[in-house]
Structure formats: C-alpha cells, structure tokens
Amino acid sequence: MSSIILRQLNNKIPRINKIFVTSLIQQKRHLNLLEFQSKKLLDEAGVAIQKFRVLESKNDEKVLEDFNVKEYVIKAQILAGGRGKGHFDNGFKGGVHLTTDKSQALELVNKMLGHKLITNQTPTDGIEVKKVMVADSVNIVRETYFCIVLDREHNGPVIIASPDGGMDIEKVAKETPERVKTVAVNSVTGLSHQTAVELAQFLQFKGALVEKAAHQIERLYDLFSKVDATQIEINPLAETDDERVIAVDAKLNFDDNAQFRQKAIFEMEDTSESDPKEVEASKYQLNYISMEGGNIGCMVNGAGLAMATMDIIKLHGGEPANFLDVGGGAREDQVLKAFHIITSDKNVKAILVNVFGGIVNCATIANGIIKACQSINLTVPLIVRLEGNNVDAAKKLLSESGLNIQTAEDLDTAAEKAVSAIK
Q1: How far is residue 307's CA from residue 350's CA, in Å, rounded to a whole number?
Q2: How far apart are CA 357 and CA 328, in angstroms?
Q3: 143 pLDDT higher than 60
Q4: Which pLDDT belongs to residue 117?
Q5: Active site residues
Q6: Distances in Å between the alpha carbon of 99 and those of 112, 266, 308?
Q7: What's the pLDDT tens digit per position in 154-212?
Q8: Distance CA 246, CA 249 (A)
Q9: What is the pTM assigned to this prediction?
Q10: Residues near 270 by Cβ (< 8 Å), separated by ≥ 6?
C-alpha cells in the first residue's frame, strides 16, 4: 500500500475506519490464526463459544464419536474469508455446511479435506484445506459486533461496539454512525464492570443477558491484555434462542514484539498458506511483501521510506517488485538475507537500495551489500543510494569494492537509474 494511497484513505475515511488503518500500519503483524485456534484461545479465557472438533484426515470417525449435538456446522479452515460462498477444485460447492446427521457431517468433511477452496479472497487456484472444524450449530436470534483494537491515537486499547453485527462495520459506521460506540480503555486500570455493562446495554442486550454479555466483554478484554493482542474482533457476538451470549466468529491479531513471552501462541502459526519468501524474511526480522507484476527489487530501511521509494519508482514509470524494510538496526547478515530473498524472485530485473542512516550505520549496509554481491554472484543491475550516518565511509567501501554498483546522490536519481536499467 503506497503512501499516496494511505494519505487518500486518511483524508476520506471516517474516524471508525482510521482506527483500523492506524492499527494496521503502526507495527509489524504477521501471525494469523485459523478459526478453530482462535476459538481455543477464547475458550481457555472463559469466553463462551460453540463446542467443536477438528478433523485433519478423511474418515476419521473417532474424532466425532463422542460429539453429539442437534445440528453440526462444518467449516473449512483456511486463512481467507468468503468460505461459505466459495467452491472447491473438485466441484464441491461451499466451505461452510449445516447438517443434523453426524454421518453426513463426516461425508462433508471428506469432500473438503485435501482439496483447494477458492473464494474471492484466495489466490485464483485456491488454498488447500488441511483441517476442517465441525462445531455445534447455534440458533442465533440477534447478532452484535464487538472489537478491541490497539489504537495509536488513543495510546492504548479502544473498544468498538455496534448492535448491528454480522455485517461490514465500516458500512455501519458510514451510514449509521450513531449505531457504533467507541470507548478508549486505560491500559493501566483496565476495563471496569460498569463500562462493560454500559457496552452490553448499548449492544441492546436485555434483562439477565446484560450481565451475561458484560461478563463476556470482560473476559474478552482480559484475553486481549493477557496475550498481547492488537485486535480481537467478534462478529457476531450473538444472542441465541436459549438465552446465551456466544462469540460465534473471531479474528485475533497479535503484537510480533511480544513473541518472546507468547511463544505458545506463535508456535500455533501455520505458514503453509504464506509466501515462502515472507516466511523466510520474518526469521531475520525483515518486513517483506511481494508485489505482483513488479520487476525492480527494493531494499529500504523504514516503512515510510520504503513506501516513498515505491512511489518514486512508479512515478518514473517503473514497477516495484516488493516492499522490503530492513529496519533501523540492520546487520550485515540481514542485508545478505534480504538480497537472497529479492533475487529469488525471477521477475526482478534490477535492485534499488535506498537507506537513510539514522540509527543504522551506512558502512554496515555497504559491507552487507558487498558481501551479498560476492556471495550470490549478482547479475542484475544494482543501484544504491545511501545518506546519513557514516555515509562517506560507506561510499568509499562501495567505490573500492570493484563491483558493478551504480550509486546515486538522491532518491529521484536512484529511481531514474533503476527504471532505465531495465528498459
């Protein structure tokens, strides 16, 4: 997402959307959990959920042997939305099904496992389903929306709630803003019971359900704090026909910086659906995102500078092949790994390095570049623009390396050279 696009978003979207955009860009986020994994965390935190089982192989009757409910909901487990309206590569329709027959539930699982599910949010060839969740279907009489998100503007958690659940919250906020309530929570004192009750009442729970909903809200906030979450979104937080308040669907995101104290959660990560280059980059604390159709590889320090670099490349008629931020404290081994990742993309025809040495030492970057070029026998044009901390020493290292490295004094010239190199 370029800085131009971000500026347009921030100028146009209402306050409710800005919370989500700000939370998206303020820090790294890689870990996403499958639905059943999120439900497991909710259950362990005392949040009411549907009972469920997970099947990973066909005809696994033992998993459902003691699982007896009135109606089963069968859901393919992939990291993409639109599963209910999707289709499989074997012709089977829908990644979400209902049945009252346990044997039919198993048949439905068999039609999903090992096949690729194609939705409007997956790659065109779909994503292979390796796990299927079979859960107790509940009769929902009313759906509400509840979310806790870490918001930079409020310097802490913000709760977003609406009695209009089961739909796009951004649309609700735009068309009926009075139906959305935002509450900033003091991260030191936490969420009070009184605030939880007020939120439950705003969500239009009545009678005994007010206390039940308030209890669920408190448990969700406790979980948010305990697991270093950056977002917990429950859509819907549902009222059932037997007067329960249940988190039917959940999305959880976590702060990568807390990985050292949330090891059990991060070990749950399933990287099979991720770009292997992105997975490898994360091991070296590199922020990498591949861009479709691009042919100029980018290595930059700082997310803002990286987006500006991509903008300038496009301004000069080029197409960036990736977003790659080596961070403020880049080491030589990270630079080497960054080059390995960039050059593993066969579409890359030139590489542009744009580093401003504030914290990072430009000489460290230069040494990393030299070692990378020697290690991988770089064959594509390389353009380097360095500025800031120890830049003169860095430039000397590059000029005396004997390598075919083009240098530039400013970003504009660097982008022009990169685009010209592939024409």
Answers
A1: 18
A2: 8
A3: yes
A4: 97
A5: 145, 233
A6: 15, 34, 52
A7: 999 999 999 999 888 888 999 999 999 999 999 999 999 999 999 999 999 999 999 99
A8: 9
A9: 0.69
A10: 34, 79
